[in-house]
Amino acid sequence: MKIIIADDETLVRYGLVSVLQDLLPPGAEIIEAGSGRELVEKTREVHPHIAFVDIKMPGMDGIEAISQVRQSSPGTLWVILTGHADFSYAQAAVKLGVEDFLLKPPDPGELKVLLKKLELKIRDKQISANRKLESRISAVLGDTTSIDFDPYFQEPRFWQAALILWDSLLPDSRKVSTQRDAAVHLIALMDREDVYSGTLVSMRDGRLLLVFTTPAGGMAMDRIIGEWNQQFKILKSAGNRIEGREIADTWLLTRVVTDIKELFDEVDRLSRTSSLRYLYSPGELIDFTDIARNQKLIRYIKIAGLLEKLSRAWETGLEDEYHGVIHKLEDALNLLPNKELDTGTLSWFTQFVIPLPGPSPPSLEELVLRLHNQGHELFENRILQDAGSPPMKSLVDKTIAVMNRRYRETIGIAQVAEELGVSPNYLSTVFKKETGKSFTRHLTELRLDKSRELLKGPEANIGSIARSLGYQSGRHFTRLFKDRFGITPSQWISERRN
Question: pLDDT tens for residues 62-76?
Fold first, then answer.
């Protein structure tokens, strides 16, 4: 927790610091400001959770200082310090949304009660901010709205995200359950008090995206980078303790950016090149700029992509495809100059991706050779990941049934996969193989087909219909409708009536 005390009297600040040090938990940070102008500067820099502010300070009084930084530090709770009762100041403070007033010097018992109340409010505000962020990011990822139509995304903010990828040999139902438990744990950690919003959402392919954001508001970029990178490490470490050694979760970090479109561009870039983790060090927290600087590693993206395809063929039980990918891998390795390829330890691959028995292979070439020679035996001895798993066709039928039932909700493949007890990657592969189209495309087409039935109504309202189908923007819905049917919803209604 970060607390700032603003008062031009040194003894007042010293006395309040002494009392707070006895009441606050270890690790709490107390910052002092000797004037209103210093309060503005330090608030913009650190975004405190609580600010104790003297009303009357020379130069810039407390009321003016609060009014200057209230928008750039929306998570700060303000408490007025005063040595007298001044009704006009009190009125102005109330309009600014201050939490309480304390007479100087504050009574320790009264301060203890106030701190407890403020701590609960901080937590409630944090959870509310995180849920709002989750809703907005989920809507964009679910293709139900556009960042161009949400003013929240147009405000100057800092953004950073981690793309979380999973590898595991667990049976599908246990994998889904373990991932869900880990996600719930991470969300609970992010809901603890802090000065920025954070959320964990599912992307279309079932991967998890962890997003942090805070208003720019004068806060230094280097401070944001330092704080957030430390927070990612804490969350990753906590996740490892939950998952034990059964799941390897690799986190790929974007840069800190100041534009939401730039953030999603970074996430797309991570998604396209995420297979490089197979040649880096899966199970780690990786700043993607480290990978981007490694030009030698970037040259091996084809090989990394084949390793990812191989893991999917194994996960979905497609032995013919498995052997086809193996042959392509062998060809790609033979084309390498001097057959040199620096990789970290490969023990993770046989522990979390394909269960090759025996000692860990010393090189990628040896790994591919053994996967080739033992491939048929591996599939013969392969224990079904889920004894009660439905056949592919049945799984697709169940998926379509869930989509027919839940198409009005903001859902993605992760939510449907969880309901059916399979992993999102497995469901995505099976669905595309059996239907010839992606889950997202099928869901969009289903919604648009349903929309034509709703548009037949005598008082059809395009905006209301769009929202009822999970699209927060009527303009976005109109664009999708025209892409599918060649005309806009309004033109479709006119043609029917004529």
Answer: 888 888 888 778 788
- Residues forming CATH 1.10.10.60 domain(s) in the chain: 392-497
| Predicted pLDDT at 385 | 46
Of the candidate CATH numbers 3.40.50.300, 3.30.70.270, 3.30.310.70, 3.30.70.120, the domain formed by 125-294 belongs to 3.30.70.270
Do residues 386 and 400 make contact, with C-beta atoms less than 8 angstroms apart? no
Q: Looking at the chain, which residues constitute the CATH 3.30.70.270 domain(s)?
A: 125-294
The string of pLDDT tens digits covering residues 167-200 is 888 877 778 888 888 888 889 888 887 778 899 9
Radius of gyration of the chain (CA): 28
- What per-residue confidence (pLDDT) applies to 346? 74
Query: Sheet of 247-253: strands edge to edge?
Result: 197-202, 208-215, 157-168, 247-253, 285-287
If you average pLDDT over residues 149-164, what whole number do you get?
88
Q: Average pLDDT for residues 230-238, to the nearest whole number?
A: 86
Mean pLDDT for the chain overall: 83
Domain with CATH 3.40.50.2300 in the chain: 2-106
10 Å Cβ neighbour count for 379? 16
* CATH (one of 3.90.1280.10, 1.10.10.60, 3.40.190.10, 3.40.50.920) for 392-497: 1.10.10.60
Of the candidates 7, 8, 41, 46, the one whose C-alpha atom is nearest the C-alpha of residue 28 is 46
CATH of domain 2-106: 3.40.50.2300
> Could you tell me the CA-to-CA distances from 232 to 87, 216, 252, 293, 445 in Å, in that order?
46, 19, 10, 21, 37
pLDDT digits (tens, 9 = 90+) for 281-334: 667 788 877 777 777 777 788 888 999 999 988 888 888 899 999 999 999 888
Per the DSSP assignment, residues forming a β-bridge with 422 are none
Reported as a pLDDT band with limits 50, 70 and 90, residue 280 is low
Predicted pLDDT of residue 325: 94
DSSP state of 25: P
Q: Are 33 and 6 in contact (CB under 8 A)?
A: yes
Local structure of 255: helix, strand or coil: coil
Distances (CA, A) of 29 to 2, 15, 128, 385, 495: 5, 16, 24, 49, 66
Per-residue burial over 41-70, b = 16 or more CB atoms within 10 Å of its CB, e = otherwise: ebbbebbbbbbbbbbbbeeebbbbbbebbe
